[in-house]
Every structure is written in C-alpha cells, then in structure tokens.
Amino acid sequence: MDTSSPVRPHGIEWPAQGVSRVPFRVFSDESLHAEEQEKLFKGDIWSFVGLDIDVPNVGDYKTSTVGETPVVLVRSADDQFSVFVNRCAHRGATLCIEERGSAKRFTCVYHNWSYDLEGQLKTVAFHRGVAGVGGMPEDFDKSRHNLRALRVEVFQGLVFATFSDTVEPLRDFLGPRMCEHMERIFHRKIRILGSYSQVMHNNWKLYMENVKDSYHASLLHLFFTTFKLNRLSMRGGLVMEGDGGHHISFSQMASDTGAGYDDSTLRAQDDEFKLHDPSLLKSWQEFDDGITHAIQGIFPNLVIQQIQNSLAIRLLVPQGPEKCELLWILFGYESDTPEQTDIRIALGNLVGPAGLVSLEDGVIGNFVQRALHGETDGETVLEMGGRTVENQESRVSEASVRGFWQRYRRHMDL
Q1: How do residues 173-202 score in pLDDT, each as one tens digit?
Q2: Kind and range of the H or E element at 355?
Q3: Angle, CA 337 vertex, CA 331 and CA 340 arms, to 5°
Q4: How far from 400 is each of 224, 373, 390, 407, CA to CA, in Å?
Q5: Are 89 and 121 in contact (CB under 8 A)?
Q6: CA nearest 335: which of 184, 163, 236, 189?
Q7: How many CB atoms lie within 10 A of CB 326?
Q8: Helices (H), 155-264
Q9: pLDDT tens across 25-64, in order?
C-alpha cells in the first residue's frame, strides 16, 4: 500500500523562514483557492453570517456566504437561528433568490420541493405521481434529503455558523481577549445606519493582510496622517489571540507626541491640506479606555471597526483567486442621540468604497495583484517588528500579519 502523501495540485512549499515570508503564488493559484473552500471555510472555523437584528421575527431570513458557499440565515424560533446552504437538495437550484424576506416555508421555484425553517424537507410536488402513475419510489425518505445545515452560535448579537462538527464552541474559538473587545463594542443594542459593498480585484488574503498591517496607515493614508486621526506616534499596540489568527490593533489619539512626523519625506502627510468644513471630523470620547481607533480581525475574513465614532462590521467574500467583495455594515446604538447619529454618519465618510481613508485600502490590493499576476516564484518579506508572532507595544510591526499566516498554514497544512 502506498502511504505517501498525495501530490497537491498547487505544489506550493512554504519558505524555510516560516511566516516572515509568504510565497507570491498563494495570491493567485486557482487550485489553492479551491482547496481553501474545503480546508478553511468548510473546516474548523466559525464564520460570521449576520446579525440577530437582521432577522427580528420568526420566519425572517437573509442570504449570506461562508467562503464562496451561499447560505441562508433564518430565525427559526423566538430564540433560535438556523443556517443552511442556499441550494435545493433536489437538483441544486438556488433556493432563496431574494437577499432577505420572510417565509413560513422555503419552496424551490424549479420543482417545488418545500422545506421548513430548519431546512427539513416537508413536501415534494407530485410525490405520489398523477392518478397513480409516476412519482417517487415507495422507499423515498424525505428525511434523507434535507438542506445541508450548519451549526449556529450567537455572541453579542453576531450570528456565526460552521460546517464543522469538531470546531470548539464559539467563545473558545474567539478567545478571551477577542470576546472582551467584542463585548466592549457590542455592549448595547445596535442600530444599523447603512450598508454597502465593493468589489476589489485582488485575492481576499491581500485585503486581510492590509487589515492586519497596522503600520501602513501613516504611509498610505494621507488623510489619517495630515489630520492626526491615526499616527504611529500615538500610544497603541497589537493584541493577538492564541496562534495569532485573531488580532486587535489600537491607538489613542490624545496621546499623540508627533515624534517622527517632521520627516518631509513622508508621502502621506501634507500640511497644506485643509478642511473647508472641520465638522466632518467632529467626535466625542466614547469609551473610557481612551482608545479612538481599533481594528479587530477575526480569522479568517471578519473585521470589526472603531474609527473614532464610526463603527462598522466588514465581511470579506472571496470570488475566485483574484477577486473579492467587501460587505460593510455601519451601525450605532439605539440609545444614540440624534447628534451622535449625525456624527457617526459624517465620520462614515472615512470608510467604504469612496471613503477618505478606505478608498486607498480598496485599490492597494490590486496594485499588488497586478504585479504578482502569473508569478510562480518569489515571496513577500514580513520582518517589521521582528519575525515572531506576539503582542506588540508598537504598531510599527507586521506581527499580526505573520499571525494570520501562522493560522492559515495550520488550516491549509502548508
């Protein structure tokens, strides 16, 4: 018997330097991308699929994704949520065409197979045929043709699902430091202020690298640096959980010393720029810890954002090896005053596809992708802040990027 390891189609071997190097091919290889859908997104992870307030009443549903797999989130009872693959068990047709709605049952438009709110097959049209002719075999068992259901858990109003029967409970998956930060952000009932999406022409992992790269903000984002919203001269750091797959980068605006920003060679600083309407950046001290900027990355593709008083959830959806879609949900709290809501909405101009900051994050991945297209050799260098994966008291570091790759390699056996 041949006990050797199977040859993997992509043939990628990780550099000997470990997570301080990343092979260029991981951003474009089609076979690796297909393998991610099985080993990663259908593996031992929890994926964010929506908010409990997205489906407030029994029967309310919304469509979502786990990796590239379409799923449906539905409130199946007062305090119960179900998530199942958005694919009829009969011939594979899309079951829920609308993005959201309310239903007592889900019926496929193709052949009218009908499922209850937990995805269990209940009726099949012409099950017994017509006038005793045709129909299903006598031994056809509806219970063997339910929709593919996922495990579901809810934390602080965020609904997560997983294909895995073996992944640890959600709180253990997140870890205590990540849970504490999520409890900090979602400490009150939220209210959605708006949502939008953007398509980016780059591999999804390039955007997650960007999220975890805390030191690019002073080099790429002119607006952050010029108007002193987020600079490396502020007190801050990187907090990671477990093997580094989850992270938080944070800073405190009031602590800014300005050190290092008298360097005229910094592209992302121009003291000639002024705002005609400074109220655009009006804010208030929202959290007692003084943190004004916090980006939390939950492995593999969820981001929770606090930029001053702009709060948001971002979900990254792969769409092939060189394309992805970023979904944004901007929110405040139900207890916000009208003035606070106005401030949140104004600060929302910083983020999104045309945001004064995020527009640069939306294109920089493509700058990388187009340079790496077709490249089979070479590797990125991740040595800022050292070569290890550990918490940092400085944000001049790529430690959390290395943490992403450490977790990624574990799931992908690379």
Answers
A1: 999 999 999 999 999 999 999 999 999 999
A2: none
A3: 60
A4: 21, 25, 8, 11
A5: yes
A6: 189
A7: 22
A8: 170-174, 176-185, 204-212, 217-220, 222-226
A9: 999 999 999 999 999 999 999 999 999 999 999 999 999 9
DSSP string across 268-300:
T--TT---S-GGGG-----STT---EEEEEETT
195: tokens are: 């949502």
Bridge partners of 304, per DSSP, are 296, 313
The 8-class DSSP code of residue 169 comes to: P
Helix (H, G, I), strand (E, B) or coil at 34: helix
Tokens of 291: 């943190």
User: Do residues 35 and 43 lie in contact, with contact meaning Cβ atoms separated by under 8 Å?
Assistant: no
Cβ atoms of 394 and 386 within 8 Å: the answer is: no
Burial class (CB in 10 A: 0-12, 13-18, 19+), 174: buried
* CA gap 353, 345 in Å, rounded: 15
Nearest 5 degrees, angle CA 128-CA 129-CA 130? 125
Do you find a cis peptide bond into 176, omega within 30 degrees of 0? no
CA–CA separation, 270 vs 227, rounded Å? Answer: 9
Collapsing DSSP to helix, strand or coil, 52 comes out as helix
What would the two tokens of residue 268 be? 């992302």
